[in-house]
Amino acid sequence: MNRLIFLLTFIMAIGIGSGARAELTSWVDENGVKHFSDKPAPAGVESESKPEIITPEWKIKQIEAEEEENERQGPSEWEMMIRSEVEWGERLKREEAQRQKEAEAERRYQEQRQLQIRQVIAAEDMARAAAEGAWHDSVMRHRSEE
Fold it and tell me: What b-and-e string marks burial along 128-140, b requiring 16 or more CB atoms within 10 Å of the CB?
């Protein structure tokens, strides 16, 4: 069993090592037929090469090339839709924060207004009490004079 695992591992290592150097080339001929081969494309034909086994270095180059192309083309429809959704969400958050600020300002205004009303009522009560006290005093003086 161990020999079998070793043999399979060895075969895979040899296959991977030799496959990493091979490249797959594709091109379209004058009739519009797409060809794939491990040999280079005929001279004068635009082709695209890709390793049979994708190495990290090749993938990094591929990603960088795609990013450069995307930068030249601008944002995709999908990216624009995501940006739009994000902007919409941010707008809703800003509006909610504004509503909360306005509600807090209204609450403070109402508290201040109620305080003013209580102060006016207290002042009226004091004036009434003072007037009643003065009236009571004058009545008492008038009675004492009689």
Answer: eeeeeeeeeeeee
Angle in degrees, CA 52, 54, 59, rounded to 5: 140
- Per-residue pLDDT tens for 93-131? 999 999 999 999 999 999 999 999 999 999 998 888 888
What is the rounded distance in angstroms from the CA atom of residue 64 to the CA atom of residue 61? 5
Token duo for residue 55: 């190495």
> Model-level pTM greater than 0.85?
no
What are the φ and ψ backbone dihedral angles of 12, each rounded to 5 degrees? -65, -40
- 73 burial (CB, 10 Å; 0-12 / 13-18 / 19+) is exposed
Instruction: List Cβ neighbours of 83 (8 Å cut-off, separation of 6 or more).
Output: 75
Name, in order, each residue with C-beta under 8 angstroms of 50's C-beta and a sequence gap of 6 or more: 23, 24, 25, 26, 58
Strands 47-51 and 23-28: antiparallel
Amino acid at residue number 1: M
* DSSP β-bridge partners for residue 35: 27
